[in-house]
Structures are given as structure tokens and as C-alpha cells.
Amino acid sequence: MARKIVIFDTTLRDGEQSPGASMTMSEKLALAQQLAHLNVDVIEAGFPFSSPEDFESVSRIAQEVSGPTICGLARTKAEDIESCYNAIRHAAKPRIHTFVGTSKVHLEKRLRKTADEVLAMAVENVQHAASLTADVEFSPEDAMRTDLGYLRDIVEATIEAGATTINIPDTVGYTTPWIMEETIRELFENVPNIDQAVISVHCHDDLGLSVANSLAAVKAGAGQVECTVNGMGERAGNASLEEIVMSIRTRSDEFDAYTEVNTKEIVKTSKMVSSFTGFPVQPNKAIVGENAFRHEAGIHQHGVIMDRETYEIMEPQDVGWVESELTLGPRSGKHGVRQRLKDLGYQVTDAQMEDIYARFIEMADKKNQIYDEDLEILMREATTEMAETWSLAYLQVNSTTGARSQATVRLRKEDAEYEKEAVGNGPVDAVYAAINLITEVQTTLDDYSIRSVTRGKDALGEATVRIATDGESAIGRAASTDVIEASAAAYLNALNRLLIRSELGKQDAQDTP
Ligand code: KIV
Ligand code: ZN
């Protein structure tokens, strides 16, 4: 009989560790709600002890998101386990996930402890976690570079101590599919109490093998896969949720397994993650890339018209690709807007609809034709509104060929307004110089891009910027029919993120896995 594979999403924890990818509290909550619609089994919501902000967001997700198990990460330290428990305790299904490095390099260089000491630490902390909640996951970090005999011992001891899931991480993306398959089989054959826990796998993509390695573990009997939407994560990222889920579904003949993910929500979730983190999805990315289901070559187009199966192994609709439609304009009523949002998968309450409709009218006044892409941006702005430190009140730019541009910018902070003028190499540079004068924050602009997100000559231009100050970086995004205004708003969006983050401060950042 086909086995169910538990999908453990760690976009909000490991995915959010991508440099510059951090999300605001409202974005994390909106994403967690979307992950619940996607019907993942477990949401790893964060690492509560790592910062007050992480604690708060894990705790709010535990209280507000229903359906999946809500999991928090903790090192094998009593204070981490307590903090994690306090953050997840209100969830209907709470889980503590505790980890410690077990490879030679981790034992000797990072932890400076013997293998026996680390095994004792793991057992003690799993017991502590199990005294607080019945659902406990243990990860021997860097398992795939850990001595196999020691790995067997620590897996057996932590199951004995109360771990109900044992996760085997390929922390540095070093393994290959056949070694992974062999390792998981070896654990199943030689750990006497292995049937008392679910065996999980967690792969990083340093060699581009994370999905293949995860699937190899499933083939060998793993019952849980840890993954992230769009493969977000440290360095080259984690195994991509959409690729794992669609591989298991499309090749169920190979795996004799299934997941309970609602695949029709995949594209929407991918777009949400890309928009909240500012990380674009490459066009040729499997499943969720813009070109994933597009056929350019005449011979392919002809084949697909004759029979879809000639060149397609999945239906685009199965993962939530819908044909974009032009349905709305300035005269569209609230009911029509709400219906189209519903078709796009957004459930909107009456109270939210007031705000969304006001934004819609403002957009429709500037831009006659409203496409689905415009509605997606509108929804993003409505859900990501954050406690803004600085917002744009007024902007004027003079730009002449062959001369430096001059900008006057007025910003609002709380109830006060501040205005400055500056010159620069081009209008965007002048605007950013004026913003820096007002905010008195010196940043470096690491990346700047502008692209048209919708269609027609009045299309929205979306600016994406990455700025850095004091070693911290943030990505900001904003869209407008005026690209200079979009550039200013994107810059402020990134700056506000940096300011919010620096106020909250991070503890123990060096211990983040
Ligand atoms: O990559 C890793 O080892 C981790 C663990 C905390 C599971 O993220
Ligand atoms: Zn990881």
C-alpha cells in the first residue's frame, strides 16, 4: 500500500536564513496561512531562542494558524528548549525540533566536545523536550559527514530518550543519491528501535543534488521530507518543496508513496515567497518558473496540440497555473473584484475588502486596465503593510540630458514630515541621496532592478533593491506606474526592514545552523 510522506516545510526557518531574505511579521503570518492552505503537514516556523522577533512570530503562528503541526527549532540547550516550548505551546499540534552537530569537524572544531559528551547532551535535551510535548524531532546536524557507527548510536539513544522523528540532515549538501539511499537503509537495518520514530531527511543544494538526495531517502523508507518553497535557504538553498511533491506525485510508480499537499496552491505559494523575500524565481525553474510549461519550438507546440502527453508530464493547472485574464477596470464593482480574487485563490473578509477595494480604485484611476498580475501586487501590498518607519510623502525630480539630476524628497515619520534636496548621477541616485540625507542612514546599494510586471504602456513598474548597512542587508520591493516613485518606495521598504531588524537585535546569530 502506498505510504504517506510527511511534508515538513522549513521556508520560515531555514529558507528565511538566506542572506537578505528576511520577512516581516505580517509576511510570516500570511505565508504560514498560505502553507496551511497548501496543506503541508509541518511548518517549521522559526528558531524562537535566536531573537525576540523569531519568538514572537513562532508564537503568533502557533496561535493563529490551524491545520499543520507548528514546529520550532532549538539547540540542545535547556534555555533553547524552554523558549521553543513557550513559543509553540498554544498550537493544536506543537513540535520541538532540537539538533546538535555530530560530524568530526563539528565535534572537534565547533563544539569542542567528545562524541560521548554530545550523545549525552542530545539524550538529556530530547528527554527535556519530551517532558514538555509528545512530538519531538532530533537532528544530528551534518549527519551525512558523521561516522556511521556513531550516527546509529545517537539515533538509537535519542529514540530511546523520546524522539518521535529522527531527521538526517545533509547540512552542507555533500552527499549523493546512492550514499543517501544506502545510509537510510543501513539505519533501518541496524537501529533496533527505528520503528518507533519517523525517519526524515533534510538536504541542502550545494551540489545541486538536494531533491535527488531527498527522493533517494524516500525510496529507502524515509517518511518525512524537509524542504522549502522555491528551494530557498542558506547558500545554494534547500530541497525545493514543489519539486519533491511533484516528483512523488508524477512518479508514484517509483515511490509507491503520496503526499497530502494541495498541489493547486503551489504556484500561488511560490509567488508569495518570491514577493515577500524579493528573490525572483528563475524562468526555467522546474514547476514554478514562468517557462516551466511553455513550449517555444514549433515541433513541441505541434506535438502538444496533437496530444499533450507528447511533451508534458504534468498539467500546468495541477500546480495552480491559471490563464491571466483582463477582467477589471475603473468601473468594476466590489463584488466583481472580490470574485476575481476568489478565482485567484484569495479568501478576503468583509473588513479586508474595504481596504482592498480602496486600493483597487486608486490603481484603476491611474491605470485603466487591471490584469491578474496587478491584483497580485495589490494583494501583496495589502498583506505586507508593515509598521512603516519612513514613508514617501512627496517627490519631485528634474532630469536633463548631459546634466546631473536633482531631486526633492519629503518623507513622513510618525506625524512629522522632513524634506531635503540632493543631486545625483541620474534621477534614482538623486532620490536615494535625498532619502539618505533625511534618514541619516548611510547605505550601500548592492543591487537595483526595475521590470514591468503587468502589460500595456501603463504597466506597473516594479523596483527591487538590495541595500546594506553595518553588515546587514535587506531587499525592498515596490510597484507603481511611475518608476521613480517605485524606486523610492522600494528603497524605503528595504530601509524600514533594516531599521525594524536593528531595533529588535539578534542574539546568538553565530549559532544559527
Ligand atoms: O541543515 C541543517 O543541518 C539544519 C538542521 C537544523 C536540521 O538546518
Ligand atoms: Zn538546513
List keywords for this structure.
single chain, binds zinc ion, alpha/beta, TIM Barrel, 18 strands, globular
Protein model, in words:
With 513 residues, the protein is an alpha/beta fold. It folds into 4 domains: 3-277, TIM Barrel (Alpha-Beta Barrel); 292-320, no CATH class; 334-382, no CATH class; 391-511, Alpha-isopropylmalate synthase LeuA, regulatory domain (Double Stranded RNA Binding Domain). The protein has 17 helices and 18 strands. The chain has helices at 25-38, 52-64, 78-88, 104-111, 115-132, 148-161, 177-190, 210-219, 241-250, 252-255, 266-277, 298-306, 334-343, 350-366, 372-384, 427-439, 483-504; strands at 3-4, 6-9, 42-46, 69-75, 94-101, 136-141, 165-170, 198-203, 224-227, 257-258, 326-328, 370-371, 391-398, 405-413, 416-424, 444-452, 461-469, 472-480. An 8-stranded parallel β-barrel has the order 2-3-4-5-6-7-8-9, surrounded by 8 helices. Strands 13-14-15 form a 3-stranded antiparallel sheet. The protein has a 3-stranded antiparallel sheet with strand order 16-17-18. It is globular and about 75 Å long. Residues 505-510 have low confidence and may be disordered. Bound molecules: 3-methyl-2-oxobutanoic acid and zinc ion (ZN).
Secondary-structure blueprint:
Layout: E1 3-4, E2 6-9, H1 25-38, E3 42-46, H2 52-64, E4 69-75, H3 78-88, E5 94-101, H4 104-111, H5 115-132, E6 136-141, H6 148-161, E7 165-170, H7 177-190, E8 198-203, H8 210-219, E9 224-227, H9 241-250, H10 252-255, E10 257-258, H11 266-277, H12 298-306, E11 326-328, H13 334-343, H14 350-366, E12 370-371, H15 372-384, E13 391-398, E14 405-413, E15 416-424, H16 427-439, E16 444-452, E17 461-469, E18 472-480, H17 483-504
Parallel strand pairs: 1-10, 2-3, 2-9, 3-4, 4-5, 5-6, 6-7, 7-8, 8-9
Antiparallel strand pairs: 11-12, 13-14, 14-15, 16-17, 17-18
Helix pairs in contact: 1-2, 1-11, 2-3, 3-5, 5-6, 7-8, 14-15, 16-17
